Each structure stands twice: as structure tokens, then as C-alpha cells.
Automatic annotation (TrEMBL):
Cofactor(s) for this UniProt protein: a divalent metal cation
UniProt organism field: Thermobispora bispora (strain ATCC 19993 / DSM 43833 / CBS 139.67 / JCM 10125 / KCTC 9307 / NBRC 14880 / R51)
Full protein name: Metallophosphoesterase
Annotated TM spans: 38-57, 64-86
Pfam families, sorted: Metallophos (PF00149)
Bias kind Low complexity: ranges: 108-119, 127-143
Length: 439
């Protein structure tokens, strides 16, 4: 499916953009058409170079390619979206132009109107005497010829070309403005979302326990150490009891990105910082194990299909974490039975799981609250409309029937970073402060 998607992006989308934006707005064989066509080909060729360059040439080469490559991916996406949005008004304009041209040509009026508009005999004779070649039929039987529609002035453009260029300019400006706004959002401070959640089995003594949740930080070729430092500073300012990092921390190896993760050693919380793997940890180097060890050295505890007890004010809850579903292909997938087996069922349990899709299994195991990420909230609207095809929740809080009685709630954070284009539209980056309350 990934290869099919890549082929669609590299072939179908640029082809559509050429057909809709370049072809109708330029003359055949013109210099403008040649330049725009080659620019489209060259920019599109950056995409596979960006995706493959890091693996072949190393992260330094990837840093050079990633900015133009991923930004073009975002611009191309919004050129496509805005072009599709213009299909309806474009079709309406085409119909109106055809009707306008039909009315402008004499002799195409309705029969009754044509009869009234037929020139008198004297007028026909005057036209013949004047030698008007475009006049009506003469006594010698010369055929009547309609006057040709006026041609555009020399160096000018006709109405269709003008509308096509206007539409292409509007699409281009809209795409650039949207990507510019999205870059500012993605590269700015994450939004702090304060979310109170009631758990029906929570001991009242645990009410007010705060869990700072962050996901999808995506340390990689487009981020610097300032990105990590800012996230750590913002989390520490929340004075949370627990810090939960729910996957997709990195897009590379410890050797390449270890220095970017170093500020995590300064995370502050009363009961510790915890981490579960996301799908991108399985794409980094030889797998997640090197990052598991690196995070341990930074004072962040990985939860590998296991749980810990969080004691607070004389009461306790279970904090469990499972591996990402991507690890299943290598025998390192989620194991809820192992993480949750043998625990006190009267005690509430909070589950850290990167992908929301695990919520159904969590509900079957009696989980009270699941904290997830992965979706980025869609990252680039209207991608948020496609996320439900794969995940049960796009962003925010939702609930599902829990085994036995009650409901399993899941909160999906939008993530504090971005994957691919450093652009977020309709889904600002987020750090979430969960505050537990008794049911």
C-alpha cells in the first residue's frame, strides 16, 4: 500500500497539476510552459531523493534534501486540494463561456427572433451594392456568411486563457499561504491542552493526579536540540506527577540523533517519566532496542508490555505500557495480557499505547483510560477526514464499552512534532496535561 501511495503521489498528482494548472494557462510550445513543466518534474523528483537520501547518504545529506523536498510535498498537496475545490466553479465557468459565445454569433437566435431580425430587401441590396463580402445573400445566389467572432488583440489572451491563468494563480497563492501558515504553526510552541478525565473506579484520594502526555516528537533531520529543550521546559512548567511519552520520539538512530534526545534527562515529575514505542522506533536503524537503552540512561523508563504501581496520597493505580503494533511483525508487538495480567481488578489502570486502534483490546482487558498519539490530529487538513479509515479516534477524548461494566476512555494527543513536512494545518502541536478525577 505504501508503494502504491508513492506511485500515486509521484505520477498521478503531478500529472493532474500539469493538466489543470499549467496546460490551460500557457500556450503550446511556449517558454512559460516549458519552464513550468520542467520545474514540476524537478521538484517532484526531490520527493524520492528526500526519502531515500538519508538511508543512502546519511543524515547530513538528508538535512539538505529534507527542507525543499518535504516543503514541496506540502505545497503539492495543497495545490491538489485547491485544484479539486475549483473543479465545480471551473465547470460552471466553462458552461457560461460557451453560452456567451453562442449568443455573440449572429444567426443563432431562436427562429421567431431570427425572422424579426431578417434584413429588409432594400438593406440586402444596399449591402450587395457596397460589395460587402460578409453581407446576406444577393440575387446571384451568393451564400450568406456569418461574421467571425472578434479575435484577441495582438499579444493578448482570450477569455478562457485569462480565466485559466486567474484560477492557476489563485490555487498557487492559496497553497503557498496555507503552507506558510502551517509552517508557523508546526514550528511554534505546542498548545497546552488541560483535560480533566473522570474515572469511575478512581479512589478519591487519587483525584487531582496529573499526567503530562506527549507523543510524536519526531526528532529527525528537520529538528534541532532547541525542539527537545522547548518540550522539556514546557512539560516541567506543568509540575506533573507523571510524564508519559507515547511513542514516535525519533526518526533515526542513536548515533545520528542521540544528542537531540539528551535534554530528556532534565524531565521533572513526582513519580517519573515513562515511554512506550511507536511505529517510527521500529523504522530507526536496527529497531527500538538501542533507543530503549538510551532512554533508560536518560532516566526515562520504557514500559515494554509491563506496568508499574503509582502510589499517591495513600492510594494507588496501575500505569501500564505496551509496545506498538508495528513490532508484531518482528515478535515485539503489544501484549496486553502480559502487561495487565494478575493485577488487582478494583484498582484503576491507565494504559500507554501509541496507536488508538488498541482501545478495543484495552476495553476487553478492563482498562479505564488509554493515552495515545500517532494520528497527529491529521496534521494536514483535510487528512483528518481520512484518519478514521485506520484509527477509531482522530484526536481528543472518546469512550468505548468496557468489559464487565463502565467505559474505557481514550485520549489521543495531536503530538508535539511533525512527520514529513514541518507543516500543520488544522492540527496544532500539543502537550496534554491529564488531570484525573473521581467518577
Amino acid at each position: 500500500m505504501f508503494l502504491i501511495l508513492v506511485l500515486v503521489v509521484l505520477l498521478a498528482v503531478p500529472g493532474y497539476l500539469w493538466w489543470r494548472l499549467i496546460k490551460p494557462a500557457t500556450h503550446p510550445g511556449s517558454r512559460a510552459r516549458r519552464l513550468l513543466t520542467w520545474a514540476l518534474i524537478g521538484l517532484t523528483a526531490l520527493l524520492p531523493a528526500t526519502m531515500i537520501g538519508g538511508r543512502v547518504l546519511g543524515i547530513e545529506a538528508e538535512r539538505v534534501l529534507a527542507w525543499p523536498g518535504y516543503l514541496w510535498l506540502a505545497v503539492m498537496f495543497y495545490l491538489f486540494v485547491f485544484s479539486l475545490a475549483l473543479e465545480v466553479p471551473r465547470a460552471v465557468a466553462a458552461v457560461l463561456i460557451r453560452r456567451s459565445r453562442a449568443k455573440a454569433v449572429p444567426g443563432r437566435a431562436a427562429p421567431e427572433a431570427g425572422a424579426a431580425a431578417r434584413p429588409a430587401e432594400g438593406e440586402r441590396e444596399s449591402a450587395a451594392a457596397a460589395g460587402n463580402p460578409a453581407g446576406p445573400a444577393t440575387a446571384t445566389g451568393t451564400a450568406v456568411r456569418d461574421p467571425a467572432p472578434p479575435a484577441p488583440e495582438a499579444g493578448g489572451i482570450d477569455r478562457r486563457m485569462f480565466l485559466s491563468r486567474t484560477a492557476s494563480a489563485l490555487v498557487g497563492m492559496g497553497a503557498l499561504a496555507t503552507v506558510g501558515y502551517g509552517m508557523r504553526t508546526a514550528l511554534g510552541d505546542p498548545v497546552i491542552e488541560r483535560v480533566p478525565i473522570r474515572l469511575d473506579r478512581l479512589d478519591p484520594r487519587l483525584a487531582g493526579l496529573r499526567i503530562a502526555t506527549v507523543s510524536d516528537i519526531h526528532l529527525g533531520p528537520l529538528t534541532g536540540i532547541g525542539h527537545t529543550r522547548r518540550i522539556v521546559r514546557m512539560i516541567n512548567e506543568l509540575e506533573a506527577d507523571v510524564v508519559a511519552i507515547v511513542g514516535d520520539l525519533v526518526d533515526g538512530t542513536v548515533q545520528e540523533l542521540g544528542h537531540l534526545a539528551a535534554p530528556l534527562r532534565h524531565l521533572e515529575s513526582r513519580y517519573g517519566a515513562y515511554f512506550v514505542t511507536g511505529n517510527h522506533e521500529y523504522y530507526s536503524g536496527e529497531g527500538p532496542q538501542e533507543w530503549i537503552e538510551e532512554l533508560r540512561s536518560l532516566g526515562v523508563r520504557p514500559l515494554r508490555n509491563e506496568r508499574v504501581e503509582i502510589s499517591h496520597a495513600g492510594a494507588a493505580l496501575d500505569l501500564a505500557g505496551v509496545n506498538d503494533v508495528t513490532g508484531g511483525s518482528s515478535g515485539d508487538g503489544p501484549d496486553l495480557a502480559r502487561a495487565l495480567g494478575g493485577r488487582d481488578p478494583s484498582r484503576p489502570v491507565v494504559l500507554l499505547a501509541h496507536q488508538p486502534i488498541l482501545v478495543h483490546q484495552a476495553a476487553a482487558h478492563g482498562v479505564d483510560l488509554q493515552l495515545s498519539g500517532h494520528t497527529h490530529g491529521g496534521q494536514l487538513a483535510p487528512f483528518n477526514l481520512l484518519v478514521p479509515l485506520q484509527q477509531p479516534v482522530v484526536a481528543g477524548l472518546a469512550s468505548f464499552p468496557r468489559a464487565g461494566a463502565g467505559r474505557t476512555q481514550v485520549y489521543v494527543t495531536r503530538g508535539a512534532g511533525a512527520w514529513g513536512p514541518p507543516v500543520r494545518v488544522g492540527a496544532p502541536p500539543e502537550i496534554t496535561l491529564i488531570e484525573l478525577r473521581a467518577g
